[in-house]
Each structure stands twice: as structure tokens, then as C-alpha cells.
Design a protein that fits this description.
The complex is a heterodimer of chains A (about 230) and B (about 325). Chain A is of the alpha/beta class. Helix content of chain A is about 40%, strand content about 25%. In chain A, the strands form 2 sheets. In chain A, strands 6-7-8-3-9-10 form a 6-stranded mixed β-sheet, sandwiched between helices. In chain A, a hairpin with a 2-residue loop joins strand 4 and strand 5. The termini of chain A are far apart. With about 325 residues, chain B is an all-alpha fold. Chain B has a two-stranded antiparallel sheet with strand order 1-4. In chain B, strands 2-3 form a two-stranded antiparallel ribbon. In chain B, about 50% of the residues are buried. Classes of the chains: A alpha/beta (about 230), B mainly alpha (about 325). Chains A and B meet through helix 2 and helix 3 of A and helix 8 and helix 9 of B.
Chain lengths: ~230, ~325
């Protein structure tokens, strides 16, 4: 099966630091793929390169076989790559409705109100549309961010530490939500919570010092001696 | 009553009230009001860039002057009739704003302020440099024939008021429609969180350039009509003062509110009018008003009203 999204020899340096160092990576259609690794392994930089938030020093990014390396972030969003921020990034002074409407209308949807309501219902925020976003609880703001990502109807949804700061009950709801997204949407998940990763992911890629240490099923990663030494080892 | 009906009702009522005012006010104040309405069009345009899109420009005098000369030069040099000259003035404002924006929007924040200021100063100096054409410092007066529209003498009080009022009505309703449209939402998104907007698929450069061109069209329209109604074309309209004034109107009336620019323009106009009858140091009063504003109503008059009472105000 052909990869939906692919990185070839992707590299990004910050001064002398090789944050991402020649990464080859393939995201298969319809999978939930987790990206793990110790702090500073280059996870956020790698998805920054995939989403176009950062420019690559060298290497290629492909979407459905097409080279998109030169495209700016907003053009990649239009092609179906959505990114939700690690640190919640919403429009705090706008209403919940306006936040989601910005995502819905970006897709040229004709029925704005219906689109917004559908996106809010999927994350369980229905009925909060008229609230100002900054007045939502932290957990609800994370869900709003997710609703904005979903409303873009992406092919690939990149979630950067989505469960950070969520309560246990909220995490259970989040897992159910992500499971319901596939196979229409392919999910790339950066996550520190190993329970979430092992529970959700079909495949896992482990990064360390900007390089791919291993890729495989959760079972294979758990059994991998190199990974255990570098990361899971504790 | 839904918010949409309330909003439209309020704004139409303001337009009707302005029209009625000419029959109630003494002539002196009616003429002032005509001037205020044209300046409010300028400020409404400034508000589209600054209040809604977050572009703090110090170069809007250039777009206003583009409207003034865009109408004045064809009338004077090419002996155009008034209507095509007015259209040329409007387009000149948009065109100059577009040209400045293409370059200036590569910067943001303080750099954007300085680059727009620099362009406006370059424009002002160019007007002086080409004095043989522009009339330089002294400018030139438009004769009576150049100020008629379809046989109507625009220098007459009633017609002058009507054109100023008509322009303001169109500009204000246009702004209301714009900020309540999907594109208006994207403009605000740029102001609030540019990075997030980009990750929703919006090209910040294109959105901001569009907003700046619309803003320039407003400034050009205001400049063109101002020149025709008051019969004077001069370099003083390109000075920094005319970049600062719309900003003050907007800050005073309420940035990011549709009616704020009108309130700000009227208040500032009469403040200056009143203060200069007392002292030649009238700018002292302007400064005092701004200090009080920042201390007690940093969001301007309508901004404060919206925050406290009328949440539905656009």
C-alpha cells in the first residue's frame, strides 16, 4: 500500500543542533501512528516540517505521492494536513462559534452553522457556541482546538500532545474520539502518555536525537531492546 | 428580536438621524457635520485595517492624499468631469494602498508602522518636489465647474451635505457588511492569532493585503469627496497629521466597532473646535483627552459600551 504522507531524508538544524537529522517516515492511510521519544528528540520539529510551520534544510515531504516540500503551511492545510498545537492555540477573545466557523469556512463549506454544530457535537461541546473561548475550562479549550482541527476535514490530522493536562475521564473520551476518526482521517499523534499510545496506535515511530530509532507495532516497539534502552528502559 | 435585526436597525437609525440633523442643526454645525462624515469615512477605512485586522499603519495620509490628488489632478490638468475624477480618486487610494502593502506587509508590528510612515513621508515629499504639477505647499483650489455632479452644484450647503451623508451611509453599511461576512471573521482572526489562522489554511499576507486595499479605497473615497466638497487640493493632506487623525478618531470612538469612527471623528472635531476657541495650544486638550481615554476607557467609547452593555454591537 502506498503511503499517504511521506518524509524522505528530512533534515532541520538549529545552529549546531540536529533537531531532525535525515528522517525517513511513512504514514499509511487510515492508521493511527504515534510519534514518541524523549524530550528534545525532535518530535515537534518533525511535525513542524510535515505541516509546513518550519522550513526543511533538506529532504522532501510528500502527500499522496506529490512533493509538497515547497508549500507554505496554509497551502498544506488546504491540501488536507491539519495541525493542533501542543500549547493550546485558539482565538481566546472570540466566541466558540467563531473559532470553529473559521475552520469550517476555510473548507468553503456552504452551511456554516450546521458545520460548526457538527464539529462541536463530535467533541462534546455542543451548547457552548456562544461562550467566549477564553472562558472555557482548560480541558474544553483542548477540545475546542480539536474541534477546529476536525472541522478542517483533514486527510491527515497531526495532534501534538493532545492529552496534556486533561483529566482521566477526559482522556477516555478523547481516545474514543480519535478511534472514531479513522479510517477517514489518518492520525499522527505525538504523545507522552504511554497508556494512550499503546491503546490507540496501530504503529509507533520512536525518535531519538533527531533520528528514527525504530518503527513498528506497539508489541514490536515494546519488545525492541534498543528502544527499551533509549527510552522505555526505566 | 434577533441580534441581526437589532444591528441593522441601529445602523439604519443612525443613518436616518444623520440625514435629519441637517434640518435641525444651524448651518454652521451642519457644515461641520458634513466634514465630520467625510472624515468618518476615512476613519472607518482606517478601522478596517487597524481595528479589525490589527494593522497599525502610520501611512494612511498617503492614501487620503491619493484620493485628493486622484480627483484633483484629472479635474485640473485633464479637465475631466467630476464623476470620473471621483472614481479615479477612489481607485488611486486603493492602488497606492496596494502598492505600499505589497512591500510593507513583509514586516509586522513596529516595523510595519515605520515602513508605512516612511512611504507616506516619501509621498508627501514627492508632492512638494513635483510642485509644478501638484501646486506644492500651496496646492490649488478647484473651480466651481469642477464641483458639479449631473448639473448639481456641490458647493451648495444642501447638496454638499447630501453627498457627504450618502458617502458615509454607503461606507458604514459596507463596513458593517464586511465585518459580519466570513472574510471579516478572517480579518479579526489575523488580529487575534495570526499563527493559528495560518494553520486553518489562511494566507496571512493575502488577507492583510486585501484588508489594506479596502482600507485604502475608503481613504481614497474620503479624500476625493473631501477635495470636491471643500474645493481645495493641497500637500497638507499628505502630512503625518492626516495619518494620526484617523487613528485618534478610531481609538476615541472604539477600535473594531462600526460606529466608533463616526463618534470619534465628531468628538475630536468638536474638541479641537472648542479648544482652539480658548487657546492656540489646543493640542494640549487633545492630549488630555487621550490620556483620560487611555486611563478610563482604553477600548474607546463604543468599545466600553460594548464591553459593559451591548455585547451584540458589531
Amino acid at each position: 500500500m502506498a503511503a499517504l504522507m511521506e518524509a524522505r531524508g528530512l533534515t532541520r538544524h538549529f545552529g549546531g543542533l540536529k533537531a531532525v537529522d535525515g528522517v525517513d517516515f511513512a504514514l499509511m492511510p487510515g492508521e493511527i501512528h504515534a510519534l514518541i521519544g524523549p524530550n528534545g528528540a525532535g518530535k515537534t520539529t518533525l511535525v513542524g516540517l510535515l505541516s509546513g510551520r518550519m522550513a526543511a534544510d533538506s529532504g522532501q515531504v510528500l502527500l499522496a505521492g506529490k512533493d509538497i516540500t515547497a508549500l507554505p503551511a496554509h497551502a498544506r492545510v488546504r491540501l488536507g494536513i491539519a495541525y493542533t498545537f501542543q500549547i493550546t492555540s485558539i482565538f481566546p477573545r472570540l466566541s466558540v462559534f467563531d473559532n470553529v466557523a473559521l475552520a469550517v469556512q476555510s473548507q468553503g463549506a456552504l452551511h456554516l452553522r450546521a458545520g460548526v454544530e457538527a464539529a462541536l457535537r463530535r467533541v462534546g461541546l455542543e451548547g457552548l457556541a456562544t461562550q467566549v473561548a477564553s472562558e472555557l475550562s482548560y480541558g474544553h479549550q483542548r477540545l475546542l482546538e480539536l474541534a477546529m482541527g476536525l472541522a478542517l476535514r483533514p486527510l491527515v490530522l497531526i495532534l501534538d500532545e493532545p492529552t496534556q493536562g486533561l483529566a482521566a475521564g477526559e482522556i477516555a473520551g478523547f481516545k474514543a474520539l480519535v478511534r472514531a476518526l479513522v479510517p477517514d482521517t489518518t492520525v499522527l499523534l505525538i504523545e507522552h502518555n504511554m497508556d494512550v499510545v499503546m491503546d490507540l496506535a496501530n504503529r509507533i515511530t520512536v525518535l531519538n536525537f533527531g533520528r528514527v530509532l525504530a518503527t513498528g507495532t506497539p508489541e514490536a516497539i515494546r519488545a525492541n531492546a534498543v528502544v527499551q534502552e533509549a527510552y522505555l528502559g526505566a | 428580536m434577533t441580534d441581526g435585526v437589532k444591528v441593522l436597525g441601529l445602523h439604519l437609525a443612525v443613518i436616518a438621524g444623520l440625514y435629519t440633523a441637517q434640518f435641525i442643526l444651524p448651518q454652521y454645525h451642519a457644515t461641520n457635520l458634513a466634514r465630520i462624515m467625510v472624515l468618518a469615512v476615512f476613519a472607518t477605512g482606517y478601522n478596517i485595517a487597524f481595528g479589525y485586522t490589527g494593522l497599525l499603519s502610520l501611512g494612511h495620509a498617503l492614501f487620503f492624499a491619493a484620493g485628493i490628488y486622484g480627483v484633483g489632478l484629472p479635474l485640473q490638468m485633464l479637465e475631466w468631469t467630476t464623476l470620473p475624477a471621483l472614481i479615479a480618486g477612489v481607485l488611486a487610494g486603493g492602488l497606492v494602498a496596494g502598492a505600499v502593502g505589497v512591500l510593507a506587509l513583509r514586516t509586522a508590528g513596529v516595523s510595519f508602522m515605520i515602513v508605512t510612515l516612511m512611504f507616506a513621508q516619501a509621498g508627501y515629499l514627492s508632492i512638494l518636489y513635483f510642485g509644478s504639477v501638484t501646486g506644492g505647499d500651496e496646492g490649488f483650489a478647484l473651480d466651481r465647474a469642477a464641483r458639479t455632479l449631473g448639473g448639481i452644484d456641490l458647493a451648495l450647503d444642501g447638496y454638499r451635505f447630501a453627498l457627504a451623508w450618502g458617502l458615509y451611509a454607503v461606507a458604514m453599511l459596507g463596513c458593517l457588511w464586511l465585518v459580519r461576512s466570513p472574510f471579516g471573521r478572517v480579518m479579526v482572526a489575523m488580529r487575534e492569532n495570526e499563527e493559528r489562522s495560518q494553520m486553518l489554511g489562511y494566507n496571512p499576507y493575502r488577507v492583510k493585503l486585501t484588508a489594506l486595499v479596502i482600507s485604502g479605497l475608503y481613504a481614497g473615497a474620503a479624500g476625493a469627496v473631501y477635495a470636491v466638497l471643500f474645493g481645495y487640493v493641497g500637500a497638507s493632506f499628505a502630512t503625518i497629521q492626516y495619518s494620526i487623525l484617523p487613528m485618534l478618531y478610531v481609538l476615541l470612538g472604539g477600535a473594531g466597532t462600526v460606529l466608533g469612527p463616526l463618534i470619534g471623528a465628531a468628538a475630536m472635531f468638536y474638541l479641537i473646535d472648542f479648544a482652539s476657541s480658548l487657546t492656540s495650544a489646543y493640542l494640549f486638550f487633545v492630549g488630555l483627552a487621550l490620556v483620560l481615554l487611555v486611563l478610563f476607557a482604553p477600548r474607546g467609547v463604543l468599545g466600553a459600551v460594548r464591553e459593559r452593555w451591548l455585547r451584540w454591537l458589531p
